[in-house]
Design brief:
The chain is built from three helices and twelve strands; from the N terminus they run αβββββαβαββββββ. It has 157 residues and is mainly beta. It has a single domain, classed as Electron Transport, Fmn-binding Protein, Chain A (Pnp Oxidase, Chain A). A seven-stranded antiparallel sheet has the order 3-2-6-9-10-5-4. A three-stranded antiparallel sheet has the order 1-11-12, with no helix packed on it. The longest helix is centred in the N-terminal third of the chain and has 8 residues. It is globular. The model has no long low-confidence stretch (mean pLDDT 91). It comes from Actinoplanes cyaneus. Keywords: Oxidoreductase. InterPro entries: Flavin_Rdtase-like_dom, NADH-dep_flavin_reductase, Split_barrel_FMN-bd.
Length: 157
């Protein structure tokens, strides 16, 4: 069982994609994650996983609050941008910053204001458990879907 084979097998499971972002020391910073999931309604909790090799997570985790944006099907370029050079991740992206520092994309399908509840080391990733403080959602396009290492969209009848 090699990492490449596991990646291919894991890639058969389609998932949504979120932006995780905050203002840290006056700079917008963020990353994209396809491992986002709801955890609990009471208390309201969500989670995502981040690679232990991430250079962005050590900066983001210093933020008081994190913004989570569920990306829409037109966000594929934004998602790639969030994986690019840190200094250009938010170029041309319409985003809002809460007083607590959470950053969300203005045209996301859902936006969450969160704080870190707990981090759990899990192999080569860390599972980040987040407590929700606020939520907003919008009727809009379909979500961005990550499948077999590429982006797609849901087909609706």
């Amino acid at each position: 069982m090699t990492p490449a084979r596991l990646r291919r097998a894991f890639g058969t499971f389609p998932s949504g994609v979120v932006a995780v972002a905050a203002s840290v020391d006056g700079q917008l910073t963020g990353l994209a994650a396809s491992s986002f999931t709801s955890v609990s309604l009471d208390p309201p909790l969500v989670s995502f996983s981040v690679a232990n090799t991430s250079r962005t997570w050590p900066v983001l985790r210093r933020a008081g609050h994190l913004g989570i944006t569920v990306l829409a099907d037109h966000h594929d370029a934004v998602c790639r941008q969030l994986a690019g050079p840190a200094e250009h991740r938010f170029d041309g992206v319409r985003a809002s910053v809460t007083p607590a520092g959470a950053v969300t994309l203005d045209d996301g399908l859902a936006r969450f204001d969160c704080s870190i509840e707990r981090e759990v080391e899990a192999g080569d990733h860390t599972i980040v458990l987040l407590r929700l403080h606020a939520v907003a959602d919008a009727d809009g396009p379909s979500p961005l879907v990550f499948h077999r290492s590429g982006f797609g969209r849901l087909l609706t009848p």
